[in-house]
Give the backbone structure.
Amino acid sequence: MKNLTGNEIRQMFLDFFKSKGHQIEPSAPLVPIDDDTLLWINSGVATLKKYFDGRVIPDNPKITNAQKSIRTNDVENVGFTARHHTFFEMLGNFSIGDYFKKEAIEFAYEFLTSPEWLDLDEDKIYVTIHPEDEEAYALWHDMIGLDDGRIIRIEGNFWDIGVGPSGPNTEIFYDRGEAYGQNDPANEMYPGGENERYLEIWNLVFSEFNHNEDNTYTPLPKQNIDTGMGLERITSVIQNTETNYETDLIYPIIEKVEFMTDIRYTQDEYKPHFKIISDHVRTVTFAIGDGALPSSEGRGYILRRLIRRAVRFGTKLNFDEPFMYKLVPIVIDVMREFYPEVEQKAQLIQDVLKSEEARFFETIEEGEKLLLQLIEEAKSNQHELKGRDVFKLYDTFGFPVELTREYAEEHQLTVDEEGFKQEMQAQQQRAREARNVSSSMQVQNDVFNEIEVDSEFVGYESTSIQSTVSVIVKDGSIVDALNEGDIGQVILKQTPFYAESGGQVADRGMISSNECEVNVTQVSKAPKGQHLHQVEVKSGTLKTEAEVNAQIDTKKRTSIMKNHTATHLLHQVLKDVLGDHVNQAGSLVDADKLRFDFSHFGKIDEETLSQIEEKVNEKIFEALNVDIQSMPIDEAKKLGAMALFGEKYGDIVRVVNIEPYSIELCGGTHVTNTSQVGLFKITSESGTGAGVRRIEAITGHVAYDYLNDYFDKFKSIKSTINVKADDDVISKAKSMAEEIKVQEKEIAQLKKEIAKSQSSNIAQEIEDINGVKVLVTTVEADNPKVLREIADDYKSQLKSYVIYLMSHHDDKVSMICNVSDDVTDRIQAGQVVKESAPLVDGRGGGRKDSAQGGGTNIDNISNTLQFVKDMIKSNV
Ligand code: ATP
Ligand code: MG
């Protein structure tokens, strides 16, 4: 076996496919860009979706990459199988409509077994295929020469994620030998079964069908190849380690933990702990490095749970304060060669991780408090901890069920295991549903792929031009003309219409000639880059080759330009005010407003927000020139142009320079001087989850209207509270608020006095029956509390008594009964209320000396009082 490091294997893979004409794509960030159907990039193909479903055509149809991936659905396996991680690297080669099964199989086999490359023992290789994929069988059997015993047919070998490309796959396994289990098909001990002996290292997917919306399968116009090999797995094969964890990609982290704890990895009972910590710290390091932050929702929540899970296992290795952040330098050390960006973020990663860990150590205490409280509650009733509570402890406080169970047993309580299981399943279901939508692609559409005509965008300079119609598409086919009322897509030789991209919405407008008037309702880019106008014919007929006038809505465009330039200013101001960790996470620029999403943890307070707004306005008032130039990318980088993280740029880029304040790569439309933005006003700041904040703002006349509206409201307040001078409004409002407070006090006082004078009247109603003072009457009270206060008042004045008071408020009747201790042998308060309340359609009860009740039938109050009087008379 060759002696290779993990880093060398990764490089060798890329070199191999480069030698086969593939273009090497860099590893994309783990946080998907422009794809909100996925929480994390979870495979090599996930970053290439736009090529796979044909939305974009790549420069080179053969692509290879080493893609960092996160899979949280495998989290329960991590630490317990040899081969699963939450973070791993997937080595892949891809063909977009170029080579297919034959070459894919040839390449894979050559890379694995050729002495020039990995040089694996051919006798150890097994493959699985889809039972109906005779083509794959023939290739493995006849071309490669594998005998039948090494080709296993498995029904599940069909890659299908719902609508979009799908097809059979073939998986390559490596037999790690009898040390990992004797052959036993009954116990999953065969390639493709759930076992530790036959290790799945590589999966080749033959994407050849469109899975259509109606669940039919039709052949794909362009067949694709998508493969994935786990770097950690192939490294464990080459380095002949028991699991992925002893490879040089991960073991240094384990050694560091050993060093920090004085506990040996060789102690079997602790192995999973070491594995989980070293796996999760890799995930967290890379995820934070790519802009995710721990939080209570979505992506941030996954991160938080991984950190908590690792910390929990850490506490079993006797860690009692933050420790994971100290492992970050080791992770970076191993990976920096291929992932230099993570090194640049080292400080941020450590800061975020340390504070999140510290928070969790506190939470463990908080969780303990909650647990003790739940235990107290459980003791006084059902003697069981509710499933929902146990789940909450687990989910929110990261409390493992086993721990909760131990606590419960100490207090002779049980845990509602069934309820807990249900909550867990419900959560897993939610996670699964989130995943299902996740990998959706679009159905390939052939027509646009085949349109080769050129189309030039001239909208940076012009808003209206004479042009020629070059292609018209209706209902998915190329046609010669569109008639009145028709909807279709149009490509022009030249167009001033901006196609939606980079967050900027498309232009709207008209295409017209003597023969027709056509509304442009949307503009997008076709796979080969032409601007595709979505149109609706208002009148006449639009024909191919017709000479037309293309005119955009300039008013809208002007507003869009203001918002786009303001967005660049905001981006730079955020970096200046909040820090360099601020990265654009999404943006929308339309005519009415701008929306900017960026990575940042925690809410931005009012004061900072005003500071941000003020700074943007300063840059507007400074009237800075906006200089736009195209140049080679290297030159732009030298100028310090801000490129969007993970975005792909061509060799020549467009640089928007708001001199000397902001410089960004951008294809959008901008004003020529910041003063044209006019005014900038933030309208909201909020969190969108997962450590991403969102600012919405307006500019120009929209901002002016917005502020004016406030001014109008102010004027209306002024006249309502009857003030002449603007400056007096606040002091008047304050004094009014104070006055109201004083008046409220007075009212309360008066109410009390009324109640008192009432009670002196009532005092006359007290009757003496056999030496017991009996008071049965109605009083005025807004609520049961006041009723109780009134009753208390009498209790304090009387010695031997039976007091029964009723009151009503709206349509609710309340009653209270108090009986002094020396009388309860003859009549009980609880009894009286229990028997009397039904007369007002109500219920009630209580102790011998004190009881309360309520009802709804106000009309029967006096009958009830009579009933109670009779009851007392006959008992006392
Ligand atoms: P398994 O059945 O072992 O979970 P899979 O079928 O989910 O693997 P694919 O989705 O086909 O795997 O991914 C392609 C390759 O990526 C696998 O052959 C494996 O080498 C690697 N891989 C997949 N999931 C993980 C993981 N959680 N940790 C490490 N490597 C993985
Ligand atoms: Mg899997």
Q: What stands out?
A: The chain has five domains: 6-246, 298-434, 446-552, 557-707, 762-875.
